[in-house]
Amino acid sequence: MLRVDKIVFMKHFFEKNKIFIAIIIAGLIVGGVIYVVFGPTPSPPECLAPPEATITKVLDGDTVVVEGGHHIRLLGIDADERGYPCYEEAKSYLEELVLNKETRLEKDRTDVDQYNRCLRYIFLPAEASAEAGLDDKNINLQLVKEGQAICRFYEPDTKYRDECMALEKEAIENKIGRKWSGKELSTPVSPKEFEKLTPEKTGLEIVFVCNAGNYLGKEVIIEGKIVDTYRSKTNTVFLNFEKAYPNQCFTSVIFSSDQYKFVQSPEDYYLNKTVRIKGEIKEYEGRAEIILKHPSQIEVGE
Predict the structure, then answer these.
(1) Which domains does the chain have, with CATH numbers?
(2) Alpha-helix residue ranges (DSSP H) falling in the chain
């Protein structure tokens, strides 16, 4: 009987106080929402790798792991990923330079990238650099110098951009390394293969497509191979260069309102072709691009 009386009591209690209880529950819900929306902002991720560390593993031509398991993305450069022509050679060369060696990790402005990898320039000590026969202790620049990687800088991390661009220009002119020896698919086409988009006829500089990010706000001619295309639900056409989305180094965009001026199905026509594109380099979501409004802006290499 006591148990029954207790149940009856609780029933009457909730009936008499249901409005009060509802207010408490609503308050808890609102309070929880306010905490989630306006609560303390989580601290941004930080690189926990020490400024001096031994390289324990090389993942590819621009990413390594140091003691403690911290992943380091080399700043200012870009090397081929797995499945692309220069992947193995760039990885092997970086292993030769730094694997199991003590290095100094130098930060620029940005600490980590979107994948929480530490962004650093890697330096070898003077003695180790001399033993390896290197003129420069900056490993990032050394990879570019030997034609194993290209320069790829994004604001505000541009500390060694001028040095990198000079070394890359020298590597291209002298056909150094796998990148520029003629065996690499992304090697720029000879200027004689283009008739309209040339420096002589436009007065504009020719820029290898993966370096376009260094020319934001400037009108230039970019050159490279379209390896991936996409037509969106809004009929916008995206032409991705050198690597497939989302790893492309550059994108050209043709909005639906301008497509009547171009060839039919430009996403099919330009696929797997080396082209030159003229226009102002703009940035969208961290990537360089040119908006194509007229077919005179693009020329296919013959």
Answers:
(1) 52-180 (2.40.50.90), 191-300 (2.40.50.140)
(2) 2-16, 18-38, 87-98, 126-131, 139-145, 161-173, 177-180, 199-202, 266-269
Amino acid at 126: A
Q: Are residues 276 and 223 in contact, defined by beta-carbon separation less than 8 angstroms?
A: yes
Read out DSSP for 133-145?
T-S-SBHHHHHHH
Residues with Cβ within 8 Å of residue 145, at least 6 apart in sequence: 136, 167, 170, 171, 176
Residue 295 vs residues 13, 139, 232, 261, 269: alpha-carbon distances, Å: 78, 41, 20, 7, 13
Cβ-based neighbours of 200, under 8 Å, separated by 6 or more: none
Residue 265 is encoded by which pair of tokens?
A: 């199905």
| Encoded tokens for 146 | 């030997």
- What pTM does this model have? 0.56
CA distance linking residue 221 with residue 203, whole number of Å: 10
Residue 34 C-alpha from the chain's centroid: 36
pLDDT digits (tens, 9 = 90+) for 12-41: 655 666 666 667 777 677 666 665 556 555
Contact status, residue 58 vs residue 99, Cβ threshold 8 Å:
yes
pLDDT digits (tens, 9 = 90+) for 155-170: 899 999 999 999 999 9
CB neighbours (10 Å) of residue 30? Answer: 10
Token couple for 250: 């550059």
